[in-house]
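Forwarding the complex inputs:
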Amino acid sequence: MSKRKKRAVFYVSPLIILLVVFILVKMKVNNLEENAQQLAQMGQAAQKVLGAYREGIEKFDAARVLTVFNNQFASERDGFWTEELQSERDGVRVYQWRLDQVKPFTKADVGEQVSRYLRTINTIEESKFKLDSVERIISPEAFVIRSFLWIRGTRQSANGATPSATEAFETQVLFRMWLRATVDGWKIAKQELIHGTTVTGDRKAFTDLWGYRNFKASASEGANSSAGIDFVSHKNPLFFTPAWNPSAFEIIKYGPAGVSAVDYDSDGWYDVFFADGERPRLYRNNHDGTFADVTEEVGLPAQMPGINVAIFADFDNDGFKDLFLGCFTDRSRLFKSVADAQDASRRKFVEVTDQSGIVPRGDGDFVVVAAAADYDSDGDLDLYIGRYLDPRKHLPTTLFYTRNGEGNSLLRNDGQFHFTDVTRQAGINETGLTLGVAWGDYNSDGHPDLYVANDFGRDALLKNNGNGTFTDVSRETGAFDPGYGMSATWGDIDNDGDLDIYVSDVHSGQRWYGQATTLYKYLLTSVRQGTIFEDLPVYEEIYENVGTDWTSYGDMVVKGNALYLNDGHGKFTDVSETSRVNPFGWFWSSTMFDYDNDGRQDIYAVNGWITSKSTQDF
Amino acid sequence: MGDNSWNGYEHNCFFANTGDGQFMDVARPTGSDGIKDSRGVGIADFNGDGRLDMIINNNNETPFLYLNNLAKSGNAIVLKLVGTRSNHDAIGAYVRLTAGGKTMTRQVEAGSGYASEAWLPLHFGLGSAERIDSIEITWPSGLVQRIEGAELNALIGVNRLVHIEEGGELNEMATAHFISRTSAAAAERYSMR
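Prediction (whole assembly, two chains):
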């Protein structure tokens, strides 16, 4: 080979290799893109079918329901829906759905199935029929989905006392459906009941006290308060000023509304503090079934914009709870509880922020959540605070593994109301958009560990090593939640002696398919936002977690609330699906408590993002 | 956004623990299925009747104060821990209480959920159990305190709120009855303590 030829090969062959790699990558990306588009189209088609089905139900019109069924409909094994009483307690009845007269089903049988069910209902107040997931694509003309039917209304009471009496019911049913393309569009060709439940009750276990003058829930309706609590939540007025206009991430305006149940004056009766965008309020429990606003009486400012969270904790161990107020648009504040000079039986709050060593991130502090614990076992309470992003400057990068938050802080209590930020030396590097922080000793070693729930993906379980440092053990313990974390709470849900974790997230099958989200598009977003180089480690981490199966990662991100059971040996099992604690919705706070004193922790989880005039979703 | 909703008009959920690894959403039949855009939730027994109530802050709206009226709920015991070597409110302590064939574990927390803080006392539902078999407290200081046998039965009955000091003796002054729902008129619930 001549020298010239050799040189040509030297230069050309790497170019050829590069070209081949480029073409292969391009083909792979195109392939992914095509798959995702097919998935999205099928998802949209399924939503249309379910929408028409739901309209038929709402109009009590079985014939209309049948319009979405294929004329050649054939299920080898189906039956008429019946309800079997599973439990009856405290006015609440729980029924499991069963199939009756099981046989091969035709379209006519489905008509009878739906008609029979509709006859049990008196009125329908609300109904939804949602796409849970596209399970399998059989061919371009056929695919399998899971769908979720949800009906609320009234029906004849099962009490039997008065035949005409009605009671509230709610039905939730999960189906598997085979959809097939026909000349009239997509039709259901086969279906399977996965599970169904109906609950009924008298709605009397809890009374919403709004309108009542006191706890005697039978007296004095028409009050403009809940037993004296006349609070109304406000948006932060600073968000409507040029300096704080959250132009990059406008929906931050709808986030705030923290709350604390606190016995601030240590009289044994629990009081209430509302964090607020404009006017946080403290209501004292009067011991007579009423509350009174004492915000200014205890020395707190009448106006404090941007307060998102209040943590009442006895930072100086004097028997009275002090107060940390986490703020978004200003610095966070610390107050010490002191005896009232005029009346020693009453408490006042004196601000000690200036001497506290607690400094804001900039012109704001972006704090959303906080929780106290004695992480270093020195006898006083330390504080972990969770931050979001600066909504004036930033959008969440990637939308599913966001790490461009303002960064959380671990504040060590040095005594005398002074704190030192020890985040870095503790080895914590949490820069997600944090909406939940909860201390819990998951391995019962006497050192409180920390769970951090992050919006737009990827929560973290941080193990307290007992020497002032923490290690991220999310993956090795099995507590890795890739969802849109909105809150976290610890509790022994199965009475086995260790703490389990419940995390609230967003569950939205439809949104995922509707967006045709693909690897390619994510990468493009990163490129467009100019964050591709900072995001590369993120893509690498996702690759480590799930490999190249991005569709399944997408499913995990929107699969909703998660319950992780602790096995007592440092491992968690995700039982969200089987335990049925992850319905559709957009959840915020979640909490475990035993509402019916049966010795088992129940879970209350609040749901709903932005309710506005139109019932149509954005 | 304008007038559009975004995952709006959603009901809060109440997952009742059935004890067999499953949960049933009983928000609607129990009347706790508020539709406002709820955010933070605070739990406490506001009227001292041994049943846990809820205070919920709703974005851009008035709050929910849900008073627990459950007519036939079981017995309960509530423990308020007081730290001496540990921090005063014993944040981080965990208690394992055995009664009626169950061992329940609860920890003292200051802040959890979303921007929320619950009351500090530890509440244990006892169902139909009339006595407690043992209480084991692991204090943040590392001290493990076990109360059982004669001492426990002499001083701690059900339907009481009990103060327990770290490493200290139990004494009668530290306990207070809350309502026994079978004997008191509903209208007087809130004034009982």
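The helical segments of chain B are 27-30, 149-155.
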